Amino acid sequence: MNHNPDKSSSFKSRDHDHKNSVPRAESLKSSKEKDPAAADKNETNEQGGEAKEAEIKYTLEKAWEDIQHFLSGEEALEIPDIIDKYLDLVEHKVSRLEVPEKSKGCPVPDPEDDGWFHKVVEQMSKLHRHVSTVFKSDSNRGPLINRIGRIHQRVMSYLEDEFRVLLEESRTVEAAADQSPDAGQDQAKEEPNFPGYSKQVLATLNKISKLMISGGYEFECYEVYMVTRRNTIEETLNKLGFEKISLDDIQRMQWEAMEREIPPWVRAFKECANIYFSAEHKLAQTIFSDNPSVAKSLFANLIRVLFLQLLNFAEAIALSKRSTEKLFKFLDIYETLQDHSSAIDSLFPEECAKELKAELTATRSKIGETAICIFCDLENSIKSDTGRTPVPGGAVHPLTRYTMNYLKYACDEYTDTLEQVFKEHSTSKPRDYQGNSQSNNDENQSPFSRHLIKIMDLLDSILEAKSKLY
């Protein structure tokens, strides 16, 4: 059923007084002095308006008390006339709520109304559910049932809009936090402001979700939640520098452009694993506290898409053309995937966690295997250096300088990671791998150590041959 709200954004009363340049008390005093009769009339109108509001509030409550006796009846009794009176009052009250088109505020009625709108939504849902079930075959009651349905749809549309705008409120909170002069990175890590909702807003979101689900609008509730939170998370990742890039676009990138995308990806993955995933999990549990299975499902579906998007980037990098200068960026990606895989087990449902863990393991394996291939390419590049031109002045040979600097940096910064990579993935060597796996059979040495020694021996033999040119 299509029930798009007639209005969107925030609620406010149409009868709010316009601000005048003269304070209200002084204005009334002045008018009394000039025209006592008019002043008395104004006071009478104000008192009458207040009395009307009190009457509506009282009558809504009293009418609903009478309707509850009808709803609690076990047999299909006649629909009491008080229902028409109640519907008139609801329409009158709701019609006075205005939703400014461009407002970014929260669509909640005046707090002095004691949450009357949410009470009316709950009452209309009960009434609509009852008459639709008990009197569904009574054609004589069709017009009244349709009227109840229309009003129910209208208030639910307003409620849906309130839910949406409240969910979007976190963007405003985050923006204000970002502009704070005291907002440093260390403070942000200690006290993350994600997802950025106050306790009052969370309580209201929880109440609205219950009303929408019990009122038969669970699909709309879930859809609004998924779309809004997905947009918010993507905006958050964009602030970290990571933007969604397709697999084809990544593979068409030059390495310089691709290399610039890797640090933001690493940061985004770490932030998601350490902060955003757990915060989203807690948020879903809070808003849908009465429906744990719903909270679990919404969280899993929402984060699964984001998680696979992050993995797709790493997989696209693994498929790029190999070259020795790419090794260290590949190892950065490998470390990130390795260090933060435990976040999956603690947050996701078992089946979803199993799927995502398999995806992460497969991506990490591709990165690890490619890193080994790149390291093997270093060995092959040494073998392929067949230049016979002596270095002027007998200086250090460029091959020696490049290889030693490369290995020194690898051992200083990535020894543990390279040990792990070769230990787990050294059996998957490239077809064009030319190394002699039997060159060193010392079982006490790790696969990486053996390969490192092999490269040093190879470099020594190549330089020994080149030394004869001098």
What can you see in these coordinates?
The protein is mainly alpha-helical and 470 residues long. Among the domains are: 1-16 and 26-181 and 190-215, no CATH class; 386-467, no CATH class. Helix content is 70%, strand content 1%. The chain has 16 helices and two strands. Helix 10 (255-287) runs antiparallel to helix 11 and helix 12 runs parallel beside helix 15. The longest helix has 37 residues, at 142-178.
Largest sheet, if any?
A: 2 strands, antiparallel
Low-confidence runs = 1-34, 100-109, 183-192, 428-440
| Element pattern in H and E | EHHHEHHHHHHHHHHHHH
β-strand number: 2
The proportion of residues in beta strands is: under 5%
Helical/strand content category:
mainly alpha
How far is the first residue's CA from the last residue's CA?
A: 88 Å
The helix content is over 70%
- What is the averaged pLDDT score? 77
Radius of gyration: 34 Å
**What coarse outline follows from CA principal-axis ratios?**
rod-shaped
DSSP summary: helix tally: 16
* Strand order in space, largest sheet: 1-2
How are the SSEs ordered, and which strands pair?
Elements: E1 12-13, H1 24-34, H2 36-71, H3 82-95, E2 97-98, H4 116-134, H5 142-178, H6 185-190, H7 199-214, H8 218-239, H9 247-252, H10 255-287, H11 292-318, H12 327-339, H13 342-347, H14 350-383, H15 398-425, H16 447-467
Antiparallel strand pairs: 1-2
Helix pairs in contact: 1-2, 2-3, 2-4, 3-5, 4-5, 4-7, 5-7, 5-8, 7-8, 8-11, 10-11, 10-12, 11-14, 12-14, 12-15, 14-15, 14-16, 15-16
